[in-house]
Amino acid sequence: MAGAEGDPLVADTTSALGALLGYRAYARRWVFLLVLSLLNFSNATLWLSFAPVADTIAHRFLLSTKQINWLSLIYLVASIPSGVVAIWVLDSVGLRWATIVCAWLNFAGSVFRTLPFLFLEIQDPFAFLMGGQTLCALAQTLVIFSPAKLAALWFPEHQRATANMIGTMSNPLGILVANLLSPALVKKEKDIPMMLGIYIIPAGLACLLATACLWESVPPSPPSAGAAHSTSEKFLDGLKLLVRNRAYVTLAVCFGGGIGIFSSFSVLLEQVLCVKGYSNEFAGLCGALFIVFGVLGALVLSLYVDRTKHFTEAVKIGFCLTSMVCVAFALVSQLQGQTLALAAICSLLGLFGFSVAPIAMELAVECSFPVGEGAAAGLVIVLGQAEGVLVMVLLTALTVRRAEPSISTCQDGQGPLDWKGECPRLQRAPKSTSEECPCC
């Protein structure tokens, strides 16, 4: 049956039958998808705009590295409580107003971050930087939940996975651009205002398009039978159904863990690799390969799933392959001089891990019926953000500082971190020693 669903003749017959039943796909669905993708892209660039130039930002405003890290970590922390509100907004207020509110929050946050440069007499610039990032973080919870709902309401069944992929993958594309653009723009402290101003442009454009071009949350006629019979449970009733849905809970925990690993990987990659002597440029290259291959894999897999409807099989295989690549990264990243191996592993991690993201989101919507699309997709992401915070806190808590000289290229002014969590004295002492490790 899967092969029949992908057959062109069957697809044409289905389209003809849909036309007879009054189903219609409107061309303006692509405008909605464009606005949502641009908004998701802009929000992602704002998330990581400071991280690649953390040293310069810290020196300019006399901030610590931890404070700079919080400008990115606030996205994960804020999304946990605000995510529940975003779920209610999407399913109760509607997709159009949720997107417009998100666009204005995102634009306001991007502008708010520039105030310390416009008004030099500001005494606490970190408060304005954090305030702007917080507004952008609140916008993230709305935009990142929306692709699955947009695909379900506006796109025919044979385009839903592809539409979900486009909307979802615009986020990692924004991360890729931020990692490459921020270091290219900021060579000196005086370049920081220019960088922030450039990031305002896509945020402002997305805000303008969302306000001017989005007129309705749902199309006048449904694009498919599934959209025609789509009914959402009340907010609290829907959450209760999700918690009781074993298949959904399993998918949410597994996919949420994947989101957490992705967030941790993006933030901590440079810190892990510099310990073994790898340069920041190489860490950036690994991050770029991770995202590029992930987007390519998502494109290919989404087209395949749209034709075959093998959602479950694709997700299971993707999870298994991703787990094996994670183990490989944990081992190889602790070795020196393995540039080719690390580059290949990061590419495979993106290829297998990222590619299942839009498919898993679509599957979450499918297996949670009749719960609303916003609740089904949103709860998965909220859980993923919580797992991301947990993973990052645990990883950093389990590390220890090395006191002895090493080949580390880390430039934080402190001893390099040992990501294996082993006691440095035990690494030097003979196995027969009875001396107790002071860091245990």
UniProtKB/TrEMBL annotation:
Predominantly, its location class is membrane
As for subcellular location, the record says: Membrane
Top-level taxon in the UniProt lineage: Eukaryota
Q: State the UniProt keywords alphabetically.
A: Membrane, Transmembrane, Transmembrane helix
UniProt membrane topology term: Multi-pass membrane protein
Q: Which GO terms describe its molecular function?
A: transmembrane transporter activity
Q: Which GO terms describe its cellular component?
A: membrane
Which regions span the lipid bilayer? 30-50, 70-90, 96-119, 126-145, 198-218, 247-270, 282-305, 311-332, 339-360, 375-398
**Name this polypeptide is given:** Solute carrier family 49 member A3 isoform X2
The lineage is: Eukaryota, Metazoa, Chordata, Craniata, Vertebrata
Gene field: SLC49A3
